[in-house]
């Protein structure tokens, strides 16, 4: 019995929640494992699912990363602030690295790249890109934001469609809301960055931000766009989660990250990636912090789940 329990404890400490959940000796342990696996899999739709046997603090921290499933759902979770979600992303990236699960690790990096512009915009918006709370000034007279077919706008056709949808999706039923987040919200993130950082024909869409903070946001948003084009993020297309069948090796991941760091070292925001902070991808937490203009450190949420499972096993 002790050897079996030792095996279960080892699985919990390795964050092998799916394996342990299938073997769990008790229903409450299986339920906590399911909760942990949702977090590890970044299943943000279900972070707020009821899991009564999970300690309240862990459930509260998971809800902060949850994506609301209806326009009026409260609390707003990751639409209130993306910082807890990015801290969880960093923890997932670290766990996947140490487990040598490099394809899901690169998938997590890709998710981080898609929404990074919203992390940059959060200080100005006062939220994390909640479609129910866009500033009215985003679409004042002279703004091309959300105008489909305007040839003077630097947005692609898909970005124009996404920005048009984001201005009205909060009035749609829950099904439309969820479909928007599945397909278009990440494009809105990139479109906002284009507006403030790279647009060749600026309109009035960003005039609600004063010149000094806008200049700071421009630098952070430009770095967010640059991160999405780095060799590290492009590795996704060589992994099964992308368009190919190869899985990058640890050496390939580290090489891609070193080349990414060099490419990002163009300004004070991008150079934050050069920090050696002990993270598996050194400087990634510092880069996210610089883009966010706020501290972003790896979460301890998965670790908390692991410790709770171990305590249950030891007292079973």
Automatic annotation (TrEMBL):
<protein>
    <submittedName>
        <fullName>Uncharacterized protein</fullName>
    </submittedName>
</protein>
